[in-house]
Amino acid sequence: MPKPLPALRSAYRAWRAIGTRWADNDTYGHVNNVVYYAWFDTAVNAYLVEHGALDIRGGAVIGLVVETQCSYFSPLAFPQTVDLGLRVEHIGHSSVRYGLAVFAQGQDSAAAQGHFVHVYVDAATRKPAALPAALTQALAPLR
Amino acid sequence: MPKPLPALRSAYRAWRAIGTRWADNDTYGHVNNVVYYAWFDTAVNAYLVEHGALDIRGGAVIGLVVETQCSYFSPLAFPQTVDLGLRVEHIGHSSVRYGLAVFAQGQDSAAAQGHFVHVYVDAATRKPAALPAALTQALAPLR
Amino acid sequence: MPKPLPALRSAYRAWRAIGTRWADNDTYGHVNNVVYYAWFDTAVNAYLVEHGALDIRGGAVIGLVVETQCSYFSPLAFPQTVDLGLRVEHIGHSSVRYGLAVFAQGQDSAAAQGHFVHVYVDAATRKPAALPAALTQALAPLR
Amino acid sequence: MPKPLPALRSAYRAWRAIGTRWADNDTYGHVNNVVYYAWFDTAVNAYLVEHGALDIRGGAVIGLVVETQCSYFSPLAFPQTVDLGLRVEHIGHSSVRYGLAVFAQGQDSAAAQGHFVHVYVDAATRKPAALPAALTQALAPLR
């Protein structure tokens, strides 16, 4: 099992501070591994909504999550606030692969990092659809 | 069923801004009723940790939640940020009742409000214990 | 603060076994107070779906949660399975108040109990709507 | 991005049925991608507790999650019950890699599949520790 090295902040393009919640800690007193994916979902979708590239209720196409992955390096705990870094690692005809990393505030090396792949499909037929122009435009600064 | 009126911001004493998360929205596209309690837990415990009144791992007493309640007035949705208002409504020998309310940013009237009752017990014996001095001191500004 | 007594199983009319999940336990090693409301939501909505009284995607009316409450008596912990008891405590023109209780398997006295109030509104106008006939019929055995 | 094929039930060794919850569905009406990891955590830890290989509160070593991954093939939705399949894909000196898959009931092909890597460390020093004998014994049937 090859082990990745923690990424640095300079490898990411957009940022979102996320406050931890009481329930993020599990019985061992640290943020549970599942929670990082809730942060990934939040960082990606908030970026898209705030850049006009996601209309949750009425879009003609929707992004289905087809793969997610995360590597964990160092623990985090409530009540700290974390910084989510976001970048685009690949854009295909109907898919986007995001790279995400979680940093403790004041740290330059990631506490965890991973990826998240969206495939866009027609909201009605669920067949793969070309990425909307508003989306590719919103993603340009993340390359 | 008597219906409470939404509280105003002036009725609360301490504040915490909480960012919504993608998963907070349920299938109807609004923040699910359960999530408000995750915010209550977060606001109360973060206040206590940050005011030196809660040592999560090593305290001699622990606060058990014995009752919670929430009334919902108007919907909230990801990706908005909400303001949690906190106050103390009652302090007993071994219990504290907190009042909590959730406000949309820019709104003076609560979107939801409720309460949360902690009973303190000895961490080992689980018998009711007097509120620690550090706690009553931390709570004084919330009355 | 008057303290309710734990209800008995005989006070409830419908049942749903729910398996606890790892993340239900919080840092103190017991099921967090928030999780009970996720179980309430699950027990009410699963009952309605399975009795033909809730069409999540296409219903003409939707049930908004306007109040929830829970009293906690004794701790629960992953990996135990719990039994959710459900009853109807009040039916109005456009509202239903459910009573819910959580029992450890093999225990006759509730570990926690509370209520959950739905107000039905027109899905388009969000104005209060009469309870659909399919709903009142589904609720009859819960009185 | 090479796309894995859905696994079959015959590729897994231990099983756990998990009931979906109302909040598992996200705004698109299907189980959110994050929830699958909550199920992975539940299936692995419940297996370990129930086979005497995990003492959550008092163990001398603890398993840290260092990597998780999931590929999603077909949607699931509340209120269905799902079957979690579990197997061991690799055992090292201080690590275990589990393979997990989620099946809709009545389906032989996975709706989603992934992996989950535990590294065991000394509970006090957090340095890598050999897998306890009770653990390797509990894992034998999962190879």
Please outline the helices and strands.
Four copies of one chain form a homotetramer.
Chain A: E1 14-19, H1 33-50, E2 61-72, E3 81-91, E4 95-104, E5 112-122, H2 133-139
Antiparallel strand pairs in A: 1-3, 2-5, 3-4, 4-5
Lateral strand order in the biggest sheet of chain A: 1-3-4-5-2
Biggest interface and residues each? A-D, 27 and 27 residues
Largest sheet features of chain A: 5 strands, antiparallel
CATH architecture of chain A: Roll
Any low-confidence stretches of chain A, pLDDT <50, length ≥5? none
Q: What form of chain A results from the Cα inertia axes? A: globular
Q: Multimeric state of these chains?
A: homotetramer
Q: Into which percentage range does the β-strand content of chain A fall?
A: 25-35%
Number of domains of chain A: 1
Q: Tell me how many strands of chain A there are.
A: 5
What is the rounded Rg of chain A? 16 Å
Name of the top-level CATH class of chain A = Alpha Beta
Structural class of chain A: alpha+beta
Give the averaged pLDDT of chain A, no decimals.
95
According to CATH, the homologous superfamily of chain A is Hotdog Thioesterase
Q: Count the helices of chain A. How many?
A: 2
Secondary-structure element pattern of chain A, one letter each: EHEEEEH
Helix-residue proportion of chain A: 10-25%
Task: Say what the CATH topology of chain A is.
Answer: Thiol Ester Dehydrase, Chain A
| N→C terminal distance of chain A | 28 Å
